[in-house]
Amino acid sequence: xxxxxxxxxxxxxxxxxxxxxxxxxxxxxxxxxxxxxxxxxxxxxxxxxxxxxxxxxxxxxxxxxxxxxxxxxxxxxxxxxxxxxxxxxxxxxxxxxxxxxxx
Length: 103
Description:
103 residues, elongated
């Protein structure tokens, strides 16, 4: 994806920041099914690391997000809210501050 397209879509560059809200939403849905991230990954036939990165917002994959949402019986947008560039920037700054660095 070109830099222009990333900025146009509001994604910014990699690595993407941890998205705590996204993670919380998926973990609640997993808890409702009494399931772990590892069990979800096995059920989907996707590497656990990949599923974890998608859930945490570190990796963006509409295909994997869709499969997770379908498996959990939830709308994609309920589990994986879209983020604007400003929100991503704020998450990056918060993450950098938590690590003791500057963004």
